[in-house]
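Changelog-adjacent note: as of this version, every example in the card shows the full chain rather than a window. The one below runs 155 residues end to end.
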Amino acid sequence: MKTKIARLPAALFVATAAMLAAVPTTSSAHGAEHAASRTEVTPRSTATPIFERELPNVPGKSLLAVEVVYPPGGGSASHRHPASSFIYAYVVSGAIVSAVDEERPRVFRAGESFYEAPGAHHRISRNASRTRRAKLLAVFIKDSGRTPLVLPDSR
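Full-length structure tokens:
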């Protein structure tokens, strides 16, 4: 059901690269810490909003671009996004293992992309490497205003 988009339009790619080049390397937590086993804790991914604008032709909706950085061996806890949000994810560097809803886990490498439908369950979101960091650009089409973007699974 997911569609791999082979190439981004050149203007979007250039704009995204320029935005990412201007982002500091520190950022806030994207997902809650979760245990890979009972004794081992997986490092958290971090997310930094880098661009947000209301969509003038879609009242009540905004576009939000978020840089998500996965440290080596890092990941995000299983989560959902609001049912009003559509997410397009583009792997900027490294490789990300992702599984949405009932999909089998899949590795997405730099230059590949996927999407999350509104209300989808993002069961797996982690760095495929234990030695290199990975970076993802998540572009949300969301309700305007301040609302939680990540809804962690309850334990």
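Structural remarks: Residues 10-21 form the longest helix (12 residues).
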